[in-house]
Amino acid sequence: MLDTACKSLIAGVAALALLAMPLHATAANSTPGNELPVEDVQTFAEIFERIKRAYVDEVDDSTLLRNAMRGMLSELDPHSAYLDQDEFRTLRESTQGEFGGIGIEVGMEDGQLTVITPIDDTPASRAGLQSRDLIISVEGQSTDRMSLQEAVNLMRGEPGTDLEITIQRRGEDSPREITLTREVIRSESVRSELLEPGYGYLRVSQFQNRTGEQVRQALARMEADAPLDGLVLDLRNNPGGVLQAAVAVSDAFLDSGLIVYTEGRLADSELSFSANRDTAAPDVPLVVLINGGSASAAEIVAGALQDQRRAVVMGTESFGKGSVQQVMPLGNGDGLKLTTALYYTPNGRSIQAQGIVPDVEVVRGRLEVTESSRQLRESDLEGHLRSREETRERSAGSERLRDDYQLNEALNLLKALNVVGQRRSAAG
Predict the structure, then answer these.
(1) Could you give the domains of the chain?
(2) Is residue 321 annotated as a catalytic residue, yes or no?
(3) One of 296, 318, 323, 337 is an active-site residue; which one?
(4) What residues contact 365, with CB distance under 8 A and at least 6 apart?
(5) Hey, what's the signal peptide range on this chain (predicted)?
């Protein structure tokens, strides 16, 4: 028999069901979806009562109801979640670019806690964590059946404290146990430098509130002395972030046309964003680097520049996270993160579970120069005749080029595009 509390619960939920109906709805003319199923409400109340009466440990009503809400959201998709006050604050902090932890973006893939990407220059990246690593335990606790938010809460903490995780890398037989020391993660989302004279490198590690402004400032610095002959926009292992920042970065290279649009069930979830005429670098030859760690906002930028034929996208297929999460404050100070729409590229491609396929596939590799690759040349001979032209010292180039095969290929492609462009101009 149900006790008085559970009968009251059924009555309360049933009352809410009636309030949720349109005023004109009745048992005879109501349509599916307008009312709560009373039988399921009764089953919920029965389970609630049995847990209260028979579970091995006593559990208070508030905990049970919050767990029910968490479960209701977690079963929708990997990104919807109920956020308590601490989790809600942590989410806001991460968009500002400062939080305490190990510097890692994680998600659920086939029910397993998976590394999407480590953030640049953080304990996670320095320890060598890679995209697609499976995290099988955190602080000795198995991540099996652990929610995404629970895992994030365990990994974040006070700077200077240690965190033990166990990962399983694809292709390896044995798991790895790794100890990391938490830091205050102040992630600068934009870095830039010249790879060689005339060829710029722009790294965006995640999309924060000021990323668009920082990209424009970086472009201005690189073009201070002379216009760029080419630019590599590196979005590898970029987990995404703020939608408006992705639009702003795309807009830095586009002077017209659609950037991204969203579609959902509600009218306010259907949005579209287009480029403005005020563009920082409308004509610089551009190569965008992506990989399996490029997700969400990074895929929006790559997809927009690809569809607009503004850039050559190079690397490997991106992650495929194309859903929009709206963060809503609740009356009790907690928050709700709910998937409300899907992203689409200018040509109408859905990013969700599809990802961005590069124009030129280049897998990750290591560039090695063999000893025999340096052949004897005329200039090496003793007493050789010197050219009448002044000798020019060759630039050693950026240290980034030494071990990054994909980046070298992007630079080579930019040089080839310039050669083709110059010859066409000369022919014309």
Answers:
(1) 44-75 (no CATH), 99-186 (2.30.42.10), 190-361 (3.90.226.10)
(2) yes
(3) 296
(4) 405, 406
(5) 1-27
